[in-house]
Amino acid sequence: MHLLSALEAVLFAVGSDGLETRDIASILGVSLGEAESLCLQLRAQLDERAAGIAVQQVADTWQLVTRPEYADYLKRMAQTPMQSTLSTAALEVLAVVAYKQPITRAEIDEIRGVQSDRALATLVHRQLVAEVGRQDAPGRPILYGTTSEFLRQFGLRSLDELPPLPEDLGREGVSLFQLPSDIARD
Amino acid sequence: MHLLSALEAVLFAVGSDGLETRDIASILGVSLGEAESLCLQLRAQLDERAAGIAVQQVADTWQLVTRPEYADYLKRMAQTPMQSTLSTAALEVLAVVAYKQPITRAEIDEIRGVQSDRALATLVHRQLVAEVGRQDAPGRPILYGTTSEFLRQFGLRSLDELPPLPEDLGREGVSLFQLPSDIARD
Amino acid sequence: MSYEVRLAQFEGPLDLLLHLIRKHEVDIYDIPMASITDQYMEYLHEMETWSLEIASEFLVMAATLLSIKSRMLLPRTRTNDEEEVEDPRAPLVEQLLEYERCKWAAAQLSTMAANRAEVYSRQPMDLHPFRTREVPPLSGVTLWDLVDAFRKLYLRLPPSERVAEIRGHVERVEHVMEEIVERMRRYRMTEFAVLFQGARTRPALVTAFLAVLELIKDGRLACRQTEPFGPLELIWVGD
């Protein structure tokens, strides 16, 4: 109980910085397993009483955030930094990179049927996508992959949490958004 | 109950600036009296369960703070051996602040394409960057600049000694965004 | 003020094709090439009448569609009976499915980003009142690192938004058709390559090719190839 409150204080103070499990363990003076268990307990406790705040685990770090239900109130506050949204083209390129990484620009263009350089440059600037290597091919084209910033901004713990790609969207009458969730991963 | 959690979320997100009673009333859509009563209720609730955080009232401003009992853990966190180098993100933010000061966080975010609050907090913590004023704009955002500690650490007598940027880029705010496209692309 | 004129709301030719397939509730595995190609061309023509620039990708796709359509009209060759003859539509279908998956994933990401925007974090607290020890001085971080950090940021900046692009010349299939008719009336017979010697850019060449296909469709032009990969001969049969 005492440690749970200490954890709450620590996560509160660290804010958007977040803390990794091992940092929590060393600050609270507990084992890694206990640290994780405390985080999960705090999460359950805050969830149970539908508090204004919640525990979130993103890309290996734990942090406190507001509960989505109260977003309307927060939007009324003056100084809420809003992330500018991505264009359709940028989202498409990001999707291709996320699922097919590492991938070259030519391969992205091929899948989308259009040039993607501008959208890709935007994603690189926003650090959602980065150069991860070079392809062993003529011209040694750049290979792109997603970053940990991508995980953070999309609230993912790891790439494994990306929804599996549906195998078959093509059949007539299959609505894009009414797919069984257990379809095999591409 | 619902409004109490909303209040918690709002006070959490607003940070160390806190909110005046009338701001809380207008955000939650309640009267001044109700706003104050909600703050007192939230305080009682957090006190009762000895949460990691507490409601603090200074003059007419309310804010969430960590409970003094847990100060030791915060000390331990502040003490965690700090690396003697800077992360890539922190170095980048420091460069932007050095060359573009005084600058707001939103402007830093804009140039970098990503949120910079974590890196900025590190730099403030290391006393390389500090608040140098407030911008005369809605929300009166904080203006950041480099400190004398920054000059000392980098062996500069004054900011005039900062090396000029290649091709004089960045000397004027505009030039950053008018790049020849053949350079900016990968 | 600058304006961005895009080819309607479509991200590219695959997007447009998917739209047409969905709109007409066509089975993607059995695309009626004739009608889809017609609708696609109609759309491009409409864009032309609005004098909108048509990105070359759209023209290349037009050529692909016409080529598939024509291959489907050809009788299956008897020479290699043993081999299974591939449906000429297969590569296109594969491409469309892949792109549709991409769109699906983009929609998922968009939802995830929207959910994420409902959640607010908090600026890290200034912990230095809690600090009792001195912050260790920086080591190994030089002024050069600072300049280098700025330079790297500079390289990462996206190219400046170029929102208006005005091309001096728009290739229109109708115009090129008229040109070809005029020349074929004089030549009566010529080689494809000779007729298009003047076309230097890819859009110009594709437009010219489309014009020839249109004329063949209208029965005003015939095309002959005497040997595999040999020169294409165009014969005027119109008027």
TrEMBL record, chains A, B:
NCBIfam families tied to this protein: SMC-Scp complex subunit ScpB
Domain of life: Bacteria
Family recorded in the similarity comment: Belongs to the ScpB family.
Name listed for the protein in its UniProt record: Segregation and condensation protein B
BP GO annotations: cell division; chromosome separation; DNA replication
Gene name in the database record: scpB
Pfam families according to UniProt: SMC_ScpB
GO cellular component: cytoplasm
Record key words, sorted: Cell cycle, Cell division, Chromosome partition, Cytoplasm
Chief place where the protein resides: cytoplasm
Species of origin: Alicyclobacillus hesperidum
Subunit structure: Homodimer. Homodimerization may be required to stabilize the binding of ScpA to the Smc head domains. Component of a cohesin-like complex composed of ScpA, ScpB and the Smc homodimer, in which ScpA and ScpB bind to the head domain of Smc. The presence of the three proteins is required for the association of the complex with DNA.
Keyword Ligase recorded: no
Function: Participates in chromosomal partition during cell division. May act via the formation of a condensin-like complex containing Smc and ScpA that pull DNA away from mid-cell into both cell halves.
InterPro entries, alphabetized: ScpB_csome_segregation, WH-like_DNA-bd_sf, WH_DNA-bd_sf
UniProt lineage: Bacteria, Bacillati, Bacillota, Bacilli, Bacillales
Keyword Cytoplasm: yes
Compartments where found: Cytoplasm
TrEMBL record, chain C:
Highest taxon of the lineage: Bacteria
InterPro entries on file: ScpA (IPR003768), ScpA-like_C (IPR023093)
Principal location: cytoplasm
GO cellular component: cytoplasm
UniProt-listed Pfam families: SMC_ScpA
Compartments, record wording: Cytoplasm
GO biological process, one term: DNA replication
This protein's UniProt keywords: Cell cycle, Cell division, Chromosome partition, Cytoplasm
Similarity comment: Belongs to the ScpA family.
Job of this protein: Participates in chromosomal partition during cell division. May act via the formation of a condensin-like complex containing Smc and ScpB that pull DNA away from mid-cell into both cell halves.
HAMAP family to which the protein is assigned, alphabetical: ScpA
Subunit structure: Component of a cohesin-like complex composed of ScpA, ScpB and the Smc homodimer, in which ScpA and ScpB bind to the head domain of Smc. The presence of the three proteins is required for the association of the complex with DNA.
Protein name (record): Segregation and condensation protein A
Organismal lineage: Bacteria, Bacillati, Bacillota, Bacilli, Bacillales
